[in-house]
Write a structure and sequence with these properties.
Elements (H helix, E strand, L loop, with lengths): L1 H27 L1 H6 L1 H8 L7 H12 L5 H16 L6 H15 L16 E6 L6 H14 L4 E6 L6 H12 L2 E3 L7 H14 L4 E6 L6 H18 L6 E7 L4 H14 L3 E5 L9 H9 L3 E5 L7 E3 L2 H9 L1
Parallel strand pairs: 1-4, 1-5, 2-3, 2-4, 5-6, 6-7
Antiparallel strand pairs: 7-8
Helix pairs in contact: 1-13, 3-4, 4-5, 5-12, 7-8, 9-10, 11-12
The chain binds guanosine-5'-triphosphate (GTP) and magnesium ion (MG).
């Protein structure tokens, strides 16, 4: 018996990190769950049939849930069609159908990865408007890669905002990864050019480029980001291999319009959604995936180094609905 108990305890310990994370995801998304699933549950409570009034109210809940107009319209159309065809007959089934449909919106395939020359670094450029969490995300990702045994290099290409270079430097020291930097005001493309050369000769595995979120004008910002992109490719054909766009979940619909602009200008490959902890606007995840057809790579659920997780659509739906 003692032996059996010990095995059980061991098993629990092994499972603990996973359950711990799911619990944190659920807690982080509690406001989203309350505002979305909570309203759905109240709507469906005690109802035995799907009436036109119920569908109208459902429509209103979805339209005010930050999922986004286009995605909501598609959801509603599909629900109404299924009800008309008598495929959905009671509110409980309707909830399951919604859940399945929302999950399908979250399944966006990764684009084909450009081929990497063996022994050369993967260069990732991280972009987004000011304050969304680019620098913090880079630190979190660097920490994650380092834990996986990868050699990481950070590049301080936000030379515009005072203290941005130091901020990345502090993170680099904390995590124990090298930061390539010059003074505030230096040409960010020159910093990137030097960094990519250094990374190639030092056999670094991953290069993460931190960029500015604000310049004198939006046009300046896009032009500068494009220049950084070109210069990285000049030093190393194919680089940057990925462009990660960081979006702040608390900005709701605004995040979608930002994504459209960045995608048009730079060709974004992955989305990182930060600040999902404590926002009621988590529904934006669904709209972003579906409308932009870009995979969400990571989600940020706090300010600390390990408050970042690879995005998992199934876990997200579970955290919102169950
Ligand atoms: N709650 C929460 N806060 C976050 C998260 N990610 C980043 N932050 C906070 O958001 C603030 C801005 O983060 P930064 O990483 O400096 O943002 P940035 O995009 O680099 O900003 P600029 O360099 O000014 O363009 C900081 O206070 C971070 O701690 C997250 O997932 N959750
Ligand atoms: Mg920054």
């Amino acid at each position: 018996m003692v032996w059996f108990k010990k095995k059980e305890e061991e098993k629990k310990e092994q499972e603990a990190p996973e359950t711990g994370f799911f619990k944190r995801l659920r807690t982080g998304l509690s406001k989203t769950r309350d505002s979305f699933t909570g309203r759905l549950d109240r709507l469906f409570l005690g109802k035995k049939e799907i009436t036109p009034e119920l569908l109208d109210e459902l429509e209103e809940i979805l339209f005010t849930s930050d999922i986004g107009v286009t995605t909501t319209q598609e959801l509603i159309d599909s629900v109404r069609e299924k009800v008309a065809r008598k495929e959905l007959q009671d509110p409980e089934k309707l909830k399951t159908a919604l859940r399945e449909h929302i999950f399908s919106f979250l399944e966006v395939p990764e684009q084909e990865a450009p081929s990497l020359t063996p022994g050369q670094p993967l260069v990732i450029m991280v972009v987004g408007v000011n304050g969304v969490g680019k620098t913090t995300t880079i630190a979190k990702v660097a920490h994650l890669f380092k834990e996986q045994g990868k050699e990481v290099m950070l590049v301080a290409a936000d030379t515009f905002r005072a203290a941005a270079v130091e901020q990345l430097g502090v993170w680099g020291e904390r995590i124990g990864v090298e930061v390539i930097k010059q003074k505030t005001g230096a040409d960010p493309s020159a910093v990137v050019f030097d960094a990519v050369s250094a990374a190639m000769s030092r056999k670094v595995d991953v290069v993460l480029i931190d960029t500015a979120g604000r310049l004198h004008t939006k046009r300046n910002l896009m032009d500068e980001l494009k220049k950084i992109y070109r210069v990285a490719g000049k030093k190393m054909p194919g680089a940057p291999h990925q462009v990660w766009l960081v979006l702040d979940a608390t900005t709701g619909q605004n995040a979608i319009s930002q994504a459209e602009i960045f995608h048009k200008e730079l060709g974004v490959t992955h989305i990182i959604l930060t600040k999902l902890d404590g926002t009621a606007k988590g529904g934006i995840v669904v709209g972003i995936s579906h409308q932009l057809q870009l995979p969400i790579k990571f989600i940020g659920i706090g300010e600390k180094m390990d408050d970042l997780r690879p995005f998992d659509g199934a876990a997200f739906v579970q955290a919102i609905f169950d």
